[in-house]
Amino acid sequence: MVSRKPFYLLVALLYIVGLGMTFYHHIALDVPLTPGEKRQIWSIEAKLEFEATGEPVIASLAIPGTQPGFTLMNENAASPGYGLSFVEKDGDARAEWSIRTASGRQELYYRVDMMADAHAKPAANPQPPAIEKQIESEPYATAMKQILERAQERSADGYTLTREIIKEIEKQEQNAELLKKHKTRANLIAELLNNANVPARVVQALSLEDGRRRQELVDYLQVFNNPTDYKLFNPQTGEQGRPANLLLWEYNSGALLDVTGGHNSRVTFSMIEQEQPVNVALAQKFEKSDILNFSIHGLPLEEQTLFKGLLLIPIGVLMVVFLRVIVGIKTSGTFMPVLIAVAFIQTQLITGLVGFLLIVGTGLIIRSYLSRLNLLLVARISAIIIMVISMIGIFSAFAFKLGLTDGMKITFFPMIILSWTIERMSILWEEEGSKEVFRQGGGSLLVAIIAYLAMDNELIRHLTFNFLGLQLVLMATVLLLGNYTGYKLSELKRFKPLVNEIESGATPGKDK
What we know:
By secondary structure, the chain is α+β, with helices and mostly antiparallel strands. About 45% of the residues lie in helices and about 20% in strands. It is built from 16 helices and twelve strands. The protein has a four-stranded antiparallel β-sheet. Strands 4-5-2-11 form a four-stranded antiparallel β-sheet, with no helix packed on it. A hairpin with a 2-residue loop joins β4 (about 85-90) and β5 (about 90-100). The model has no long low-confidence stretch (mean pLDDT about 80).
């Protein structure tokens, strides 16, 4: 006897891999398990203003990228007459405008859409800045040394030192007041930390709030405890950590805006919050994803539409296998009900049923005439195919004349399958009578309707399209059903007399 262990190992492997892929996409890539969810999108517009001096102009603006908490969706700029390039300079992504000559007031716009995404990962992790110790003149050098010494006494690492320095600066004493007039608070704290050999830099961030206009960036401190571990600090309050809706805009201590050929430059920000359906957001998110984030969303839209239908077919196949193997419903053809169900999805159920019955019914009448002509099989099938196409054309034109636009959708029916169905039913009628034809035809329609209801379910559509691993789960389930050798549910009626005898107390097989 052949061992079934390899078979069950294969099924188990398919379940494990399929479910593993599904949960990976849900947990790691934030793909929702239910349809209808939306994602928060922040549309942010940066407005650049400056006075051009009549010379060649180059305006370079630091721009954000994907970072913890936010995924870059798309970006664009409005710059009439200007050339625009997106470049990388000193580790910063920048938008760079250029023009041969310009004079007077100039306004340039840059817009970016960022999706709030708890699973967002930047292309590269931030690297600690090189520690640069500046030499200050007196009395600033002495004041900084005294503040740093007091803070170091009450600290244990870079993070605690940052908090203690902020507390020292908050004190209304002579050294703190002197230094606050000498440097901005964020730059002063970063310099003190560098003097203590703690990598730190000033980054510029935007606090996101729906409907705000003409906002400016605020300074934050990025403090590293080791090359892979850093924290953000608010230099004004000493608060540690990244507040909700805080977007880092410039995070390499570079210039926010650098203008050559102009002066009096300024950048202000406006923002608005909106929501997008999850399928739109995911399509944009996975457009530039890495190889582990493979998804149907990364394909062109035309291919996505094709796969959205193809990935539903295994659901219909599963319904057919279950209803035939477990329930015992007879159908005309093995998977003809699946193809009919696919056509129902395009035509809608009622229109599809009416069209199917009209075409098959008319085809059987014409086929009964062809059987009298004693034609060869190939010629007979060819004639039926031509007849089916003609009927579909006639019914579509007739439905259009009556204003029934849904009736034109019967063109989605698989014509070759319909032709073979008519041929099989006709032969079945001749060999086993009309009862068997109605039995198998009715069974085919019943299976097709059940498959259609499963395939047209919004939740199933969402799951099959967004989680490719479920195809392996469906395959494993089909293999298990194919291993079933017990009674079908439709066969249990044979045992009803036996059950009645047992319930009545009689000995099975004997008269009372």
